[in-house]
Design goal:
Layout: H1 3-6, E1 24-26, E2 33-35, H2 36-41, H3 57-64, E3 71-72, H4 91-102, E4 108-115, E5 118-125, H5 136-152, E6 156-162, H6 170-190, E7 194-202, H7 204-207, E8 216-219, H8 230-237, H9 248-253, E9 259-260, H10 266-278
Parallel strand pairs: 5-6, 6-7, 7-8, 8-9
Antiparallel strand pairs: 1-2, 3-4, 4-5
Length: 284
């Protein structure tokens, strides 16, 4: 054995089942090793390249809402299997696995909170639950959140993160597009602002309904936003797509979104925006 190999310093390896926490995360974009505490302080945005990590619903609330201000409204409605759907496994088994993974009944978390002291109704989709797919429960919770916002005259802030409608609920899932759209009309009738934040990814029936009918649409940098995926579109029209097609910056240039805002600026930016829309003074 060569002496340089004998004296070479080895990095300690975390043992399986160890109580030691994971301290580092590799950025999938620039491959930089990031210290988790620093990543948390940066709202889970890579400080090297600006890549926006996908967030769980709980982390999204931590990033957006004033500390300690969130009060949950959702969680009372649970999904069922009315179609007795089975693909590679029965739908109830798939649901149980997603529920165990996320700790919630379905792919959405709603509640009330404040942004720099401004009261809001908050609805956050969770991509970790079956790809944030929209089923009957997601539609019902968004409708209830819209009704609460209308009744309390508080702006509705919705964070979209979804692969689209949930195929295991078939037409029942597609019906949520109409249901949520009708519920959100009540906000317009009462003059209550509705702002949506499109994150990576926001696609399918979610894009085609409630996510893109807001008064103001904000997107995160680099987010994939569209109805069908770029590969499907390219195969259908048999043409090469433009550079950055269906990314947030491309959609901003073409008028589909109103602004692209770094996540680290979301709380301040949205508080200012909602303050203007509600004609309330916001302390920043």
């Amino acid at each position: 054995m060569a002496l340089d190999r004998f004296f070479r310093r080895r990095r300690p390896q975390q043992q399986a089942g160890s109580d030691l926490p994971d301290l580092w995360t590799q950025c999938p974009a620039c491959k930089e090793g990031l210290y988790n505490r620093e990543l948390e302080q940066e709202a889970y945005v890579c400080p090297r390249c600006g890549h926006h990590f996908r967030l769980s619903a709980e982390r999204r609330v931590e990033v957006l809402a004033d500390p300690g201000s969130f009060r949950q409204l959702s969680g009372q409605v649970h999904p069922v299997d009315p179609l007795h759907f089975t693909d590679t496994e029965p739908y109830p088994e798939r649901l149980r696995r997603a529920q165990a993974k996320t700790g919630r009944p379905d792919a959405i978390l709603t509640g009330t909170a404040t942004l720099h002291g401004l009261p809001v109704t908050l609805a956050v989709m969770d991509f970790a639950f079956s790809g944030g797919s929209m089923g009957s429960v997601v539609g019902e919770e968004i409708a209830r959140a819209a009704e609460h916002a209308a009744a309390t005259q508080t702006p509705l802030l919705l964070v979209a993160a979804s692969g689209g409608a949930r195929m295991q609920e078939s037409a029942l899932s597609l019906m949520q597009m109409a249901k949520t759209t009708v519920a959100l009309e009540a906000l317009t009738e009462r003059g209550v602002p509705y702002v949506s934040i499109l994150t990576d990814p926001t696609t399918g029936g979610v894009t085609a309904s409630f996510a893109t009918i807001a008064d103001v649409i904000v997107a995160e940098p680099g987010a994939l936003i569209g109805f069908a995926g770029p590969r499907v579109i390219q195969q259908t029209i048999r043409q090469n797509l433009p550079e950055g097609f269906q990314r947030a910056e491309f959609l901003l240039e073409h008028g589909m979104v109103d602004n692209v805002v770094d996540r680290r600026e979301h709380r301040r930016h949205l508080a200012q925006l909602l303050g203007v829309l509600t004609r309330r003074e916001v302390s920043l």
